[in-house]
Amino acid sequence: MKSSRLAIFFIGAIAASGLSMLGYSVIKFQSLPHYPFLVLLVVSASASRLKLKLPGINGNMSVNLPFILIAAAQLTLFESMLVALVSSAVQTLPKPGTRLSAVKLLFNVNTMGLAAGSCALLWHRHSLAGHTWSGSLPLIASCAAFFLVNTIPVAAIISLTEGASLMRTCSSIFQLSFPYYLGCTGLMSIVSAISQQVSWIMPLAILPAMVLMYISFRRYFSTMADASPSANQQFLTAAAH
Question: Distance between CA atoms of 169 and 164, rounded to whole angstroms?
């Protein structure tokens, strides 16, 4: 019962934080949505349905990540949050015949919105952009913020609802998803180096690479899922250390 109350409180806190970030982005919004924004929104939402269940953990990841990172780097805060919120909502939609959980949708959408908002704010900070490390510091800071804000709340809610160890769950998620985040960060840096303004064709050019990455991770996770329960348990135990 205590864990259930803490989970409700935690979800409420995430929802309030996400809505606050969205409200702040609306206040700062100055221009109308433009063509590259619409392309990123459509491509990101479409890619959201290519998702993989993380083995041994009640969670999944989608190939929408690089598009959300590109939006955070090259669009306004409001636009980048819209891309993240819509993509997360589409990703959360269940398979046909399965009931949609409103609580899960609320949590996932606001967590992704917070992550995208934090990433965009750090990327566009003039103090970071003008640092002697040139563009490396905002890249590292913004992508690290996205990674932490998007994964730690997920690990926390799994821990609260399933009684799992928070550190063990965090470690497992980090080990499973970090290579993917690292690859997407590389794509984001390449796109940002090519142009300060995202071209409408860039998301379409990246999409085939993300499909190949999806196929690769799907095969890898399928191999892990086919392993014996004892092998999965050994992996999760090792991840906790």
Answer: 7
Instruction: For residue 18, give the nearest of 92, 100, 93, 105 by alpha carbon.
Output: 105
Question: Which pTM does this prediction carry?
Answer: 0.80
Q: How far apart are the C-alpha atoms of 229 and 150, rounded to whole Å?
A: 28
Decide if 12 contacts 106 (C-beta within 8 A). no
**pLDDT tens for residues 126-161?**
545 554 445 577 788 888 999 999 999 998 998 888
Angle at 181 between CA 35 and CA 70, to 5 degrees: 15
Instruction: Return left, alpha or beta for 16; rule: phi > 0 is left, psi -120 to 50 is alpha, else beta.
Output: alpha
Is 4 exposed, middle or buried, given 0-12, 13-18 or 19+ CB atoms closer than 10 A?
Answer: exposed
Computed on alpha carbons and rounded to an integer, the radius of gyration of the chain in Å comes to 18
For the segment 53-61, the average pLDDT, to the nearest whole number, is: 69
Helices (H), 29-101: 35-47, 65-74, 77-92
Q: At what angle do helices 166-194 and 201-225 cross, to 10 degrees?
A: 150
DSSP class of residue 241 equals -
Write down the pLDDT at residue 240.
Answer: 37
